[in-house]
Amino acid sequence: MINKLLLAALASSFGLSAAATAAELNIYSARHYQTDEQLYGNFTKQTGIKINRIEAKEDELLERIRTEGANSPADVFITVDASRLAKADELGIFAPVKSAELEARIPAHLRTSNWFSYSTRARVIVYNPELVKAEQVQTYEQLADPALKGQVCTRSGSHPYNLSLGAALIKHNGAAATEKWASGIVANFARAPKGGDTDQIRAVAAGECGVAIANSYYLARLMNSEKAEDQAAVAKIKAVWPNQASWGTHINVSGAGMLKNAPNKEAAVKFLEYLASDEAQTYFANGNNEWPVVPAVKVDNAALAKLGDFKADTLPIGELAATVPEAQRIFDRAGFR
Ligand code: FE
Questions:
Q1: Do 66 and 188 fall into the same domain?
Q2: In a domain, 32, yes or no
């Protein structure tokens, strides 16, 4: 009897350890969308590797990875925004990944040695044609023009989306010009920064402000919405791809990297490579109305098709992310909070 129990225990512990080492992958993700089931399910179907997912806010996940330390079960960390990926990288949690497949699929400016971008989003200008003229709002720089006094709505300057835009402005125009720009934006506020990007778009539609900046997927979400109020808001506004005549529209990314203490490194690399496959790119990007990073992959998305093509900034994403702390200092001094 005892032997039988012992054998059963041994068998089950063997079973568990085999599963843990050979066929599992633990993902910590700060990103969650409707297409996730297909995204993760198809990886398991293709590889037999079971995925365990922990989803939480960025900071909670980073804290968890730090506290777990060398014993962390996390293999892959997924989050949005280059500045957040850079922050994770600074904490030293990533392990470098060298993959010919990823190098071939993901454009060089959208990856670093430690993490990879898997979708892009653009920071667009949205305006109300009853309040401002199209030619007044073609560039980010113009938003600081005194002609737009009392017209600009934006979310907090401390938010990563605006800090990343600030970093791009520093790289292209220099620190002094960016500080002047930030002061100009503040002087042009229609109201103190509040809410998210969707709130700014709605405020433009309602005529509370003439112009705002917002990530493209918030606009696309409203455009693809079947709600009458969203359609009414969209009908009131126009969108601009900023800086088409200069350095291109600022883009940001969602991305992922393998963790230094990952217990399943082989599976982690397989997963990072899978995310760059045609099929995964479609789910990953389209799930949030974003664009795939792999140039050959096109998503079937009515709003993105309607918004059309644009010239995107090609600043290396790692350089952009590294400039975010400087953008924060500049925005603080300018009172863009
Ligand atoms: Fe967002």
A1: no
A2: yes
- Cα 295 to ligand 1 centre (Å): 23
CB atoms within 10 A of CB 220: 23
> CA-to-CA distance for 202 and 199, rounded, in angstroms?
5
Rounded to the nearest angstrom, the distance between the alpha carbon of 14 and the centre of ligand 1 is: 43
> pLDDT tens digits, residue range 228-239?
999 999 999 999
Q: What global pTM score does this model have?
A: 0.90
What spacing in Å lies between the alpha carbon of 121 and ligand 1's midpoint? Answer: 9
What is the whole-number distance in angstroms between the Cα of residue 254 and the centre of ligand 1?
A: 10
Q: How far is the CA of 289 from the centre of ligand 1 (A)?
A: 11
Q: In whole angstroms, what is the distance from residue 152 CA to residue 165 CA?
A: 16
Beta partners for residue 54, in sequence order: 28
Rounded Cα gap, residues 215 and 267, in angstroms:
32
CA distance 66 to 92: 10
Total domain count for the chain?
A: 2
CA of 205 relative to ligand 1 center, distance in Å: 19
Q: Which domain holds residue 241?
A: 120-250+317-334
CA 22 to ligand 1 center in whole angstroms: 35
For 302-334, how does the pLDDT look when each residue is reduced to its tens digit (9 = 90+)? 999 999 999 999 999 999 999 999 999 999 999
